[in-house]
Every structure is written in structure tokens, then in C-alpha cells.
Amino acid sequence: MRILVVEDEPDLRRSLARSLADAQFAVDESGDGEDALFRALEVDYDAIVLDLMLPLKPGEAVLEGIRRAGRTTPVLLLTARDTIADRVRGLNHGADDYLTKPFVIDELIARLRALIRRAQQQPWPVVTIGSLRIDLVQRRVYRDDVEVPLTGREFGILEQLVRHRGRILTRTMLSEHLYNDASEVMSNAIDVHVAAIRRKLGAGLIETRRGQGYLIDA
Amino acid sequence: MRDSLRARLLFWHVAAGAAIIVTFGVAVCLLVWHSRLSAIDTGLRLHAAALDRAVRPTDNGQVDLILDPGLRQVDASGIYHFVWTREGVLIDRSDTDRAVPEPGPDGPRFAGGHRELAATAASGVRLLVGVDLAPLRSDIRALATNLLAAGGGILLLSVAAGWWMLGRALAPLGRINLTARRMAEGDLSARIPDESVDSEVGQLVTALNSAFDRLHGAIERQRRFTADASHELRTPLATLSAEVQWALARDRARDELRSSLEVCGRAAARMQAVIERLLFLARGQAVAAETHPVRLDDVAREAVDHTRALSYASGLTVEVDLAPVSILANRERLLEAVTNVVTNALRYNVPAGRVTVETHLENGRAVLRVADTGIGIAAEDLPHVFDPFFRGDPARSRDTGGAGLGLAVARTVAEEHGGTIHCDSAPGRGTTVTMTWPADRVVPGTEPSRPA
Fold first, then answer.
1. Any idea what the CATH number is for the domain that residue B243 is in?
2. pLDDT band at B393 (very low <50, low <70, confident <90, very high)
3. Of residues B73 and A25, more confidently modeled
4. Domain A126-215: which CATH number of 1.20.1050.10, 1.10.10.10, 3.90.930.50, 3.40.1550.10
5. Where along chain A do the CATH 1.10.10.10 domains lie?
6. A53 closest CA partner among A94, A15, A19, A100
7. What is the share, in percent, of chain B residues with pLDDT greater than 70?
């Protein structure tokens, strides 16, 4: 899942990005409001972590720009302002959640996952398909209660397909949610990962639509 | 408390009223008594004179008493009489219930509830005229009773009126009490409703309300300052905490941990800088009281030296025009203030820009001026540049450093040394910050002022 982290303090931004990457998110970073709005409209992020006090364009304006463009991307405000009035204003500007600095990384990650689940209308983080049980929080897959080890990328692809069950996802869509801007992606990377997943979980799970992409049937 | 004050006031009010009424009543009764008594005495004297004329000594040394029939009876005025010979033989008396008294010495007297007058007529005949005082006594009693009733009535009325008026007069105290209690409970916007501005209580209410306003303002400023301060500390604290959480989440390589610690170190230094500035602002007056003559031009030169690294790095030119000026100041705090102003001028400048620092005397006042060719400050931000934590342009990102406390510190220092600080700016053209100290802070003995 791909996340945009907008924070003007470089140390905090990098630290956040590293922790989110550890949690298997693909993370892009942005240090000012204008760049943040440009990226948010350019890429279909799964969620955005947004600081309010930003150079060039305040966080509220970024949020408003995203919503004005019709984007429903979940936005979590991460800010030092902690009065009730600040929270209310943030949420009224179209934010989905609010966390004050300093924060606990685990809580931030849990909230981001919850926001993404809610946005994709999947309230329960455990999905069962046939004999497979996929835990989207623990990021583990079980067949008949026996864990099948997947790599981070493999799980990322499986997660996208599960979250959009019944929809065809193109290779571009898959890689957009899987890699950040900094990643150098081989053109057949997605195909290689899908092949690996099929090897581990069985060939019937993921269908190929030639010339279009992949899907898991509903 | 209000009711006890009301009762106490009313008590004294009533006590004074009662004392006045009683004194007045007693005085009236005494006056009436005396005037009636003197009328009685006059009557008695007339009666005695009539008797005196009726006594005729005879040739044989006896006396005749030839009385009008009207004198023999007790008349309408109730005056009776007794007549004795020189030897004390009662020779005549009116028809009265009065037991025969002793004639006694001449003159008026009170005897057995009667007013009597004894006299000696020709040839030693003793006369005594008198009147029963019972009617006068009962008149006085009736008068006293009436006065008491009227006085009591007046007193009752005044109690009622006094209670009501005191209640009205003291009602604002209740409102003041209520408002003060609301303030104490934390509702700082509470104010006393003032409807009677002209009265003393009205003036008190106005004074209290304006005191409440100032208190509210001070607490509000304090609150905002604390909120801003905590806000300034939160970001580096978040960095520190996030970095530590990342480092501890799993085993990290040596160089990863090293860079992590560097991030933590930077965050800690940032927090330290904010805290030091806050303490600097908070310590204020106490330290500023220790003043010595300080060369303003030396302080400016040192401030320019301190910021040399910054001016080199940004490729800026710093020009100085320093005339020797001494003022009474705390050197350390003054240096901090001037350094902040110069740092700001360097930080918010344009590439290859210029900063001018000058000191001189102007009409006896000490002036330090720092001008830059920088990005300037928008007119609407100008009134706020000296507020703690104010950062004008959002484009002045954190990357340029500073917690927004530099100019707040400069103002605090300028003012605690009896001076002022002023900022002129035009966006795109530059900013000029002028610190001025009045003549009484200037220490004479340095070079004379240059022509203005």
C-alpha cells in the first residue's frame, strides 16, 4: 500500500518514512504544501499523512485541494496543534483522522490501516477465500490454519487483489500501490511476483485477463 | 456576608433613628411640662395676690378676711387656698379634698402631687395657694404616649424603607460576588453587568470589570504563550520519539543506529534552543536589573562577529557604521537581543544581499539600527513580528531555523532596559529594526553625537 508522508521537519519526515516502510508500506515523502498537493493529485495514494504547518501552502489548503479535486484518499492529520478547536477544524476541512505529536508509531500504523480498510469498505481485516485465510493486519496467509510464508511484495500484490476482489487490476495499478517513486521497478516484476504467489497458494487463486491484468474472483 | 452587612447597616440606622426620636420626645415633654408649670405658677401668684388684698388688719391687731364669694370656692382652674394667722391658726380654707398642709417657708414647692405657693401677707398672715397636678400629669402622659406611638410608627417605616433601600444599594455586591466566583471557577469572560454607572458602586463595577479585562488578557496571553511553547517542543519531541521507536523496532545495523542517534541529537539541540529562549523570556526583569554601562557599538560588533558564519554561508555583505554609545544595560541580554535581530536580518535576506548595522546618538537617545535588503514583511504581519512564536510567511520554513522567538526576545530586552523596538518593512525591499533607548539610559562620556 502506498502512502504519502507530508512533513516539513526533514528528520521527522525521514524517520516516519522509514518506520512506515518497515511496516510494508510504499512511502513517498513531501516537505512542503505545494509539492504535497501535486503528488496527492498525481498518484492514487492509499492514504496521506499530513502535517498542518507547512511551508508554501498550509496543510488545510492541501487538504482542501485534494477534496476539491474529488479525491476521497484517507487523510490523517499529524500535527503539534492539540486543542479541541484545532482537531475540529482539521476534521471539518475533510480529514479522516487526527493524531498529535508526539505519537506512537504503532498507533499511527494501526490508524492508517483502519483508514484504508474503511475507505475500501472492508471493516474486518481477515479475509477468507476457500481454504485460505488472509490476515491483512498481521500480513500473513494461512492455508488450513498452516501459515504460508510470502515476501512483502507478494503479500502486497495479494492484498491489493483481495481488497479489490472481483475487479481487474492492471500491472500499473498494482505497481503504483506497491512501489514508491524511488523504486526502480523491472517491467515484468509484477508477473514474477504473481507467479511466485501462484506457486505457493495454488494456480487457481489469481486469474489472468490477457492484455488487462489480474483479478481474484468475488 | 451581604445580608449581615445589610443587617448591620440597618441596625445602626434604626438605633440612631430611635435615639433621635426618644431624645425629641423627652425634650417635647419637658418643654410642655415647664411651660404648663410656669402658667400654673402665674395663676398661683395671681391667686395669692388676690388673697393678700383680701387680708385687712384691724385696729386691735386682729385681721379681717373679706373674701369674694369666688375666692371661697375652688375655681375652674382648681386653685385652692389656706389662710393662717401669725400664730398658725387656720382661719380660712377653700372647699377642697386637700388635707391641711404645713404652711412652710415662702415660695413655690411640690407637695403630695400638688403645686403650692406659700406667702406671708400683711400683719404676718400666712397664705398658701395650690393646685392639683394630676391633670397636667395625665396630659403629659398622653402626650408621651402619642409621641411614642408616632415615633414607633416612623421607626417601623424607616426600618422597612431602609431594608429595601439597602437591599437595592447592596444588590450590585451580590452580582460582583457572583461574577468573582465565576471568574475563580475559570469562566474568565464573566463580567459584572453595570446598569448604574454614576453611583460609587457603578464606578467600582467599572473598575473591577476593567481589572477583569486586563487579568483575562494577561491569562490569555500566558495561555497562548504556553500553547505555542508546547507546540514548538512537540515537533522535535515527535522526531526524537519516532526515531527511537524506529531504532528499537528491530535489530538495526551500526551505521543505521548512528544516523538515528544523530537525528536524536539534533532534536534534543532544537528542544534545548527553544527551552533556553523560553527561560530567557521568563527570567526577564530580575536579571535585567543588574545593569552596567555597556558600549552599544561593541555589543553590535560582537553580534556581527557571532553571526559571521551565517553571513559567509549565505554570501551576504554586512556593513557596520558604529559610533561609540554607552547605555546602562545587562550586557549578556543585550548581546542576545542584538544577535537575534542581526540573525533575522541575515536569515530572511536575498542572495548576495546586504545587512547594515549602525549605532549612534539621536537627540540624546541611543539608537541601534539593523537594516536588511531581505524579503520584507507583509503589512498585516508587521504588528505581530515581536509576538513570541510568530513566523510571518509560511514559506519561511523550518529549514531556515529559529523558533519564532528571536524578535520576541529582542523586544523583551529592549523594554526591560527602558527602551523601545520598532520595525519598518516593505515586502521585497527589506526590513529595518530600530532599538531606541531614552536619554536617561545613556551614559555620557562617550563621543558627542554626530550631526543628525
1. 1.10.287.130
2. low
3. A25
4. 1.10.10.10
5. 126-215
6. A100
7. 89
Whether B79 and B130 have beta carbons less than 8 Å apart is answered as: yes
Residue B339 has pLDDT above 80, yes or no: yes
Per-residue pLDDT for B98 more than 90? no
CB neighbourhood size of A198 (10 A): 14
* Structural domain ending residue among the three candidates B121, B137, B153: B137
CB pair distance less than 8 Å for A11 and B267: yes
B150's torsion region: left (phi>0), alpha (psi -120 to 50) or beta? alpha
Q: For an interface test with B, which of A15, A24, A82, A83 has the most B Cβ atoms less than 10 Å from its Cβ? A: A15
The residues of chain A that CATH labels 3.40.50.2300 are 2-119
| Phi and psi, residue A98, nearest 5° | -145, 130
Tell me whether residue A67 is exposed, middle or buried, using C-beta atoms within 10 angstroms of its C-beta: 0 to 12, 13 to 18, 19 or more.
Answer: middle
pLDDT in tens, B72-86: 666 677 888 888 888
Residue B414 located in a structural domain: yes
Q: Which residues in chain B have their CB less than 8 angstroms from residue A15's CB?
A: 239, 242-243, 246, 263
Whole-angstrom distance, CA of residue A70 vs CA of residue A41 = 10
| CB atoms A8 and B239 under 8 Å | no
Q: Taking a C-beta distance cutoff of 8 angstroms, is the pair B105, B119 a contact?
A: no
3-state secondary structure B252-282: CCHHHHHHHHHHHHHHHHHHHHHHHHHHHHH
Is residue B15, in this structure, part of any structural domain at all? yes
Percent helix, strand, coil in chain B, to 5, is 55, 20, 25
pLDDT of residue B395: 47
Question: Cβ distance B122 to B57 under 8 Å?
Answer: yes
Report, at the CATH architecture level, how domain A2-119 is classified.
3-Layer(aba) Sandwich (3.40)
| pLDDT tens figures, B213-226 | 888 877 777 777 77
Q: Is residue B163 situated within a structural domain?
A: no
- Predicted ipTM of the assembly: 0.72
Q: DSSP assignment, residue B362?
A: E
Q: How confident is the model at residue A111 (pLDDT cuts 50, 70, 90)?
A: very high
- Judged by CB atoms closer than 8 Å, whether chains meet at A54 and B394 is answered as yes
Q: DSSP state, B72? A: H
- What digits encode the pLDDT tens for the residues B262-276? 999 999 988 888 888
Domain extent for B277:
196-289
Spatial separation of the C-alpha atoms in residues A112 and A27, rounded to whole Å: 13
Structural domain ending residue among the three candidates B237, B258, B289: B289
Residues A215 and A169: beta-carbon distance below 8 Å: yes
